[in-house]
Each structure stands twice: as C-alpha cells, then as structure tokens.
C-alpha cells in the first residue's frame, strides 16, 4: 500500500492532456505515427492541395458540424496521410475520435483472425468523429456494402462526422448511391508516392 503522506510530495501532477493525447495516438498505425498536415507530399497537385485544405478545415470546424468527407482516388496520392494527420490533429487537441483501417473491420465481418473488440465495435457506431482508412470491397462484398451503408447512415442520422479514404471512385460503388450521397467526395490525384522514382 502506498503511504498516504506521499500525496504531499513534490512529484508533478500527471498531465491528463498528454495522457489523453497518447491514448488517442495509440489508434494510429505505426507507419503513420509521425504524419502531420505539414509533412504532406510536395509538390502538391491541385487536387492534393484542395484535399489538404478541406481536411484541415474539417478538423477545425467540419467535425463539429457533422460533416462527412470522403477522399477518393488512386493509390499512393496521400489520402491515408491526410486521414492520419487529421487523427494526430484531433489527438493534439484532446478531441476524441475513433479511427480504424477498414481491413481490420472487414476481417472482423468475415471472422478472420484480426478481430476488432466489442469495445471497438461500440466505438465505431458511437463515436462522434469516425475515421475509416482504405475503405474497399473485399471478398465478402455484400456484407461490406451492407455494413458500410449502415455505418454511413448511422453517422448521418446522429450528425456524427466521418472522414474516409478509398480507391473506389465513385464512392457509391462501395455503399450505394443513397449512403454515398451523405459524403462530400473529393477526388485526389497525383503521382504514386509509394513507387520509387
């Protein structure tokens, strides 16, 4: 048992803001731990510059207004970078969010080994700010489409904010026209930054 007199020691009070930030940042995959808006790709194409401005604005005011934003386009143009930079910005502010790469959720639907926890599923449907990375159809496309439609409708009905990234363009190929229409869709184009020059 700890000596109650230790309460009076000069130890610093734990900074709850730092603890909350660190807890939120644990949702960010390792390869995106250091991304920020300032580290986004250079040189920017016009669509990348527009997406950067839009996601920054979404973090500043759009999330509070329940705006649902989708970044769509080919691989390697920085869509995921922007999503995880948004996650970092929210974490730095201490603003709660739930972020998950779609494959983790889709694997759960198929019952494979990378299952999400019950708590994660509850947060997925109950988070006021939802970030889904690399949303795509997988082997079980009917289940994925149904689940994406339910997520989009739940977020919309509850005025929750959402940011998703996808290679599917248009988005309605993933979730149907009605659900896709709830998102502001921004096409992001540019060179594939994953490929060596």
CA-based gyration radius: 19 Å
By CATH, the superfamily of the domain at 47-176 comes out as: P-loop containing nucleotide triphosphate hydrolases
The CATH class assignment of the domain at 47-176 is Alpha Beta
Tell me, rounded to a whole number, the average pLDDT: 83
Task: Name the features.
Rossmann fold; 197 residues; 5-stranded parallel beta sheet; 5 strands; alpha/beta; 44% helix; 7 helices
In short:
The protein is of the alpha/beta class and 197 residues long. The chain is built from 7 helices and 5 strands. Strands 2-3-4-1-5 form a 5-stranded parallel beta sheet, sandwiched between helices.
Word description of this protein:
The chain is α/β, with parallel strands linked by helices and 197 residues long. The protein has a domain of 130 residues: Rossmann fold. The chain contains seven helices and five strands. The longest helix has 17 residues.
